[in-house]
Each structure stands twice: as structure tokens, then as C-alpha cells.
Amino acid sequence: MKERTCRKMECDILTMTKNIATNLSDYERMLKIMGRKENQRTWEGIEFEAFSPLTLSHGLPGICLLYGKLMECCPKEDKWGRFAHNYLSLMVEELNKKGFQSLSMFSGAAGVALSVASVSNDFLNYNKLLNTLNDYILNRFEESYSNIVKEEGTHSLYYDVIEGLSGVLSYLGIYRNQRKYYNVITRGLEILVNLTKDIEIQGQVVPGWYIPVQNQFSELEQDLYPKGNFNTSLSHGIAGPLTILSDMMANGIIVDGQEEAIIKIIKFLFDFKLNDGERDFWKGQIDFDEVVNKKLTDENIIRRDAWCYGNPGICYAIVSAGNALDNQFLIDYGIENLRLTMNNIKGIFSPTFCHGYAGLYQVLNSVEMLLQKEFFSLEKELLKNKITDFIIRIIYMDLKIWSLTIKWRK
């Protein structure tokens, strides 16, 4: 009975996903909706676009990832490939007009290239486009990342998985067995290793991933961390490079100092963790003075158990390190902390990836894929239920608004 219910739920999820994906194929309608006033966001005087065509995070590449997954799940349904092709054509048009802002995963060349690879039918199609995109990344790699390690500290956008080096290396890892990519990947790993070396700030020796006050994301963070900080997260912090260094090592790509860099980051995370009586957890940013004094305070604690910040992303990085180092303690620690976190999820209120339940599901699934073993069947089922409930409510609200609009027009 339970198995039948699970299969029915998975079928319902797939049906809902297909319906949403079909709606997203109407580009003009989507642009109209995303352009509505209620979909615009402003933070600290900065206006954020609800839709940006060439971004993986909120543009056409992200939608193509969805179509790529549906092509994989439903190979007999040709429309997903057609929808993807239409959007790839639009992306090429945009590229010809505007070019790339960066090489990054979330808003640059790596994200676009990943989306093309995802709909390429296992690299049978779009090879000319992929080669062009990949050459663009390779040719600009050195000038983009060779100088991100500085005596005065760094910026998370230089090294992180969202906009920085770690995200680009993650994409290039797809081609790690090809010589021209291998050479660039090892160069990137050398830069990440250098990032972990100590620097001297205000007479104090600290890790090189220190972020000075002028490189904080916002004025608020500049006020909170007047001497700078150290970001722990998977999205913008040192857990991202830890994951890349570990993944590459597990796949046999190793440069001088790589193992030592992994161990150093792990030690930092274990030295600067807190405990709430139920489980260990991490601040998103650790203040300069806390690191210098080797003692955490109870200031600036914001709990969010997400893919981006908090236990899930960091624990995935720890498990990855354990896998690379063949360290069972780290693997067991990460898995147990994830279980405890799933029992009492903090600060999550949506089904989304970065800050929501979908991201948590992806973390659990990624751990299982990495270790080739099932650990979280119950937790994943509960997350599926939460995600499905959210989607049903969104669809119901959409139908209700549509129905009221039709009645009003009549």
C-alpha cells in the first residue's frame, strides 16, 4: 500500500511538473508575467530583475535544465526537446546582442553551457555550440581567476559556486578526462589551494578566504562585520571550494597541497561550530574577531537549514571531504547531522531550490549518489510531500485567480 501511494505521488509530481514546464514554453506570456510590478524586488535601493534571459538562476538556461530532465525522464515525448531548442535559439540571439557578463555558473558562460549540455542528448546534439561556449570559458579562465587570491583578502564572488571559480570548475569537471580541460581544472585547483593559505590581516594570521569589510555583499553586512568575516556556506562560502577540491580528488585530479587544503577547511568548520543541544550548526559568517580569538559569540546567528546556507550544504561538503579522504568519521558525522537537521528544519518556508525544500532534497539525494547507498528514504519522502503540497497550492491559487478573472471579464 505504501509503495503504491509513493508511486502515485511520484506520478502526480511528474504530471504537475510537465504542466508547469509546458506553461513555461510560452515565452511572451512568461515575460509578461515576470514583468508585473508584484514580481519586481528592491533591496537596499538596488532593483533586482525577476527574469534575466542568460542566467541559470532566473533565466532561460534554468528552464532548459528542466527540459533536459524531462527529456531524460520521458524520452518518447518529443515536445521537451522542441521547447529546449526554441529557448536555445533565443539564448543565442541574446548572446549575439549582449555577450556574457562573466564565466560564472549562475549568470555567465558556465551556466549557459551547462544548460546546452543538459539538452544535448548525451552530447549527440549542439556540439558546435558547446565547443564555442567551452572555448570561450577556457580562453578567458586565466585572466578571470588568476588574481583572486590577494594579500588583503578576497571576495566570495571570486571563488564561490554561484558566481566564482568553484562553480566554473564544477561545470568543467564534466570534461575532466579531456586534456585541454584537465589542464585548466588543475590550474583552478591550484588557485583554490592558494586561497586556503594563511595571510596576515591587522597583524593577525588568518585563512586566505577572509573577506574584508569593503567586499561584503551589503551595507548591512559591512555594519555587522566592520573587520570583515569568513563565509561558511556552500553557495558563497568556503564549503563550496571544499566540495570542489574533494570531488576532484575523489576523481583522481590532484595538485600539490590539495589534501592539506581540504583538511584545513574541515578543521576550520569543526573549530567554529555551535551546538543548540540537539545538533551542531554553523553561522553563515564568522566575524574576524571570533576567528582571531578562537571563540564564537551568540551574535549574528541566523538559522537557515538550506542548500545555500546552513547545515545541509555544509554537511554535504563534509561528506564529500570524507569520501575523498577515505575518512569514515567525516562521512558518518555529515550523515548524522543531516538526519538531525531534517528532524527540525529551521528557516525554510518554500519549495524552492536555493532556500527551500527542493534544495534539501537535492542535498540528500547527492549524498546518496556520492556514496552509492540509500540513507534518507523517509526524509526524502517527507520532503516530496512538502514540495507537492506547495505546488498544489500554487496551482490552485493560479486556477482560482484565472476563474475570477474570467468572471470579471464577463
Short description:
The chain is mainly alpha-helical. 58% of the residues lie in helices and 6% in strands.
Keywords:
single chain, 410 residues, mainly alpha, Glycosyltransferase, two-stranded antiparallel ribbon, 58% helix, disordered C terminus
- Sheet with the most strands? 2 strands, antiparallel
The total tally of domains equals 2
What structural class is derived from the secondary structure elements?
mainly alpha
Radius of gyration: 22 Å
Q: Would you identify the CATH architecture of the largest domain?
A: Alpha/alpha barrel
Notes on the protein architecture:
With 410 residues, the protein is mainly alpha-helical. It has two domains: 1-34 and 49-139, no CATH class; 146-410, Glycosyltransferase (Alpha/alpha barrel), CATH 1.50.10.20. 58% of the residues lie in helices and 6% in strands. It is built from 17 helices and eight strands. The strands form four sheets. The chain has a two-stranded antiparallel ribbon with strand order 1-2. Strands 3-4 form a two-stranded antiparallel sheet. Strands 5-8 form a two-stranded antiparallel ribbon. A hairpin with a 4-residue loop joins strand 6 and strand 7. Helix 11 packs parallel to helix 14 (311-325). The radius of gyration is 22 Å and the shape is globular. Mean pLDDT is 92; it is low at 1-8 and 399-410.
